[in-house]
Amino acid sequence: MRMDAVAELLKIDGERVAGALQEVRENLNGAQREIVLDFSSVRRVDPHALRALEDLAGSADAKGVKVVLRDVNIDIYKVLKLAKLASRFSLLT
How many domains does the chain have? Predict the structure, then answer.
């Protein structure tokens, strides 16, 4: 898929969540309007992944890119709520 597409879908590797999110953040550009991250293979987020999500949200806000998290399990959603990050992303089931 082209990087300047209206929405881009990326599957996040459940074994390397923080690294995958960092790569997404580094590749954000202002031409993207929306990026959809498929969390279906992610079972948990550790502190590094949580920090990477926070950094991604900040970069996306600065570049005007909407980040959608798809197929987030309930445990990850609870962590996002506790960390006050859930409101910074759109969530799809």
Answer: 1
